[in-house]
Amino acid sequence: MSGTPVRKRKRHKHNLAGYAFLAPWLIGLFAFTLIPMVYSLYLSLTKFNLLTAPQWIGFENYVRLFSDERYLQSVRVTLIYVVTSVPLKLAAALLVAVALNRGLKALGFYRATFYLPSLLGASVAVSVMWRQIFSREGLLNQFLGIFGVQGSDWIGDPRYAIWTLVALSAWQFGTPMLIFLAGLKQLPQDLYEAAAIDGAGKVTTFFRITLPLLSPMVFFNLVLETINAFQTFTPAYVVSGGLGGPIDSTLLYTLYLYLKGFGSMQMGYASAMAWVLFAVIGLFTAVYFWSARKWVNYAD
Amino acid sequence: MSISRRGLFGLAGGLAAASVAGCGFAPTSSGGAASNSLTFRWWGGEARNKAYQAALKIFTEKTGIKVDAQYSGYDGYFNKLNTEFAGGNPPDIFQMDTALVSTYAAKGVLTDLSSYIPGTIHLDTLYPAVRSAGAVGGKPYGVPSGSGIAPMLYDKTVFEQAKIPVPADTWTWDDFAKLAGELSKAMGQGKYGSLDASKDDSGALQPWLRQRGKDLYNAEGKLAFTKDDLAEWFTFWDGLRRSGAICPPEMLSNTDSATGNHPLIAGQIAMTTGWGLAQMAPLTQHQLDIVIVPRGSNGKTGQAISGGVLLSVPVKSKNAEGAAKLIDFFISDVDAIKAMALSRGIPPSSKALETLTPSLSAADKRDVTYAQYAAEEVAKDALPPAPTAPPGYNDAKTALDAAAKQIAFGKMSIPDAVAQYFRDAEAALNGAK
Description:
Chain A is mainly alpha-helical. Chain A has two domains: 5-56, no CATH class; 67-295, MetI-like (MetI-like fold, Orthogonal Bundle). Chain A has helices at residues 5-43, 60-65, 69-100, 107-120, 124-134, 139-146, 161-171, 174-186, 189-197, 202-230, 234-239, 253-263, 267-295, and strands at residues 46-47, 55-56. In chain A, helix 3 (69-100) crosses helix 8 (174-186) and helix 8 packs across helix 10. Chain B is of the alpha/beta class. In chain B, helix 9 packs across helix 16, helix 11 packs across helix 12 and helix 15 (393-408) runs antiparallel to helix 16 (414-431). In chain B, the strands form three sheets. Chain B has a five-stranded mixed beta sheet. Chain B has 16 helices and eleven strands. In chain B, helix 2 links the parallel strand 1 (37-43) and strand 2. Chains A and B meet through helix 1 and helix 12 of A and helix 3, helix 15 and helix 16 of B. Chain B: This is Sugar ABC transporter substrate-binding protein. Chain B: InterPro entries: Bact_solute-bd_prot1 (IPR050490), SBP (IPR006059), TAT_signal (IPR006311). Chain B: Pfam families: SBP_bac_8. Chain A: The chain crosses the membrane at residues 21-42, 79-100, 112-130, 160-184, 205-224, 236-259, 271-290.
């Protein structure tokens, strides 16, 4: 292990250069991620109204969470959103990826077209457009009107409002689609040839060959999209006009966190919410990794 | 090739020296700039933004103080401001909501403007009733720029088409209920006599309470009405909702008078409480008008005068002297009064009224004559003035909105919603202390 003193010093110098090059990233990590995180952990144990100094109150914020009905409502809304939007988005992504992977001529064009909604991503413009489409006098109801169907006010009705957000999320399937498409291109063709000789149909081939071989990609997308879904903010903020309405039916977790922290100026409480979310996302990810051993097949 | 330790430290030393030099230089540059410039933040629609910019141009010409104008809509305005206050970097002067001034004053982030009155700010130009609109605990933390009494807005054209006489100034809540029902029938399917105002705290619930000798809040910042009062209020609106006289709750998701995204503009309703005649009148072919909010059975209006919007100066303002000058400019300078016209409410002084009267548009004139009439009626009420909205007001207001909508969507019974409101509103008012 231990070299001569000269070599040691050389290695040290060598490392120093490495750290120097890493410095911009390291400074960013400490200044914008780690230190704020530690500070927010401290704030979560205080009462802090943004304008006067934080007061230490221990775990009171965390205890209060569980008797706050609006908080519990935001948890319910978020779970419904995550559990429905993630599978829908991945299914759409996989479906389109498989459809595009059949040697289409203008593949580049289609790929770009399907990816476009994701590029626009969580932008405000798309959310505003969504609000227009699903409002009482919106595009959807005008379209339904052609067939004599009187559509309801999708944004204004608490029974439907959250589903417009789920639909928005599913529509933005571009990123997982690209990853699936890249995965599909890597699959060994000889397996398909063998399956075809054995007389396997398209459906059997998909479920017995494509899906198992693609499972690492499914896993990767599942983890990423779940984390994203838990953190969704912009669409709920814009579509509901900033308040998570009607009657808190679109009050996603981060939106309530924002309203508490910056609207009601309860930054200590909002920090506690952030740490609970962090723990829950960690838990979901851990469960995914634990279960992955049972259903993810790596080629090697 | 690698960087030697000496080289690295040399580099770091150079950086440190540069940053020290930067610090040494900074005060002179920002100090020099501060006396000559201001950052000024407001919220508003397009008309107000244009008016402010025209006025600020005149201000710069007259005083040589440059103003960096920053503006947005009301949504998110205070959230952004809170973040800047927290970061110790608020604007030098900003537009303040009358209902929120006590919340901010209680946290000690606003400048007590006493020392600028009457030297720089000539507060005595304003009507006596308006002067104290920005006062908290007797100290001025904001100066009003307009006054007003929230009316009921209605669509005159719809009334004429339905051959129903427009509401009289003497109308009561019973008259309102009857009118709304008749209008709903006359207007046809999918259209309603009135917007659901059960959630409107200052425009509807407050006058209704004051007509009964109560109020939203008392001087100690507690709720000044009982659960029975609120249950009666919600029951009144629930009856109207069930009979189809007022709109279903889905329609309440789009009621922004500043952008014209409002059921009154869309022709879906004929009456609504609240401001906005001047903003909404140009957006529809129909003729709009205003009338005083329905009276109590004792004939009282119960209305409370609002100071419109205020201008406040943060404690951390880099140029409080300049900010005070700008505040006075808006209330004293004839050119500024002309530029702003009614974009921030009804003229708050006889000086402003006399300056503006010759050039007012028809809708503006209607606003002014209504305001004068309403002010006289409020004086006849002989009720104590409404206390300033207490700290925590905004969350209490949100709680009323939530409770009213829970009932409207049929998710909660009236007693449950009332209980929820009292729990949430009391927590908000106590927690803000």
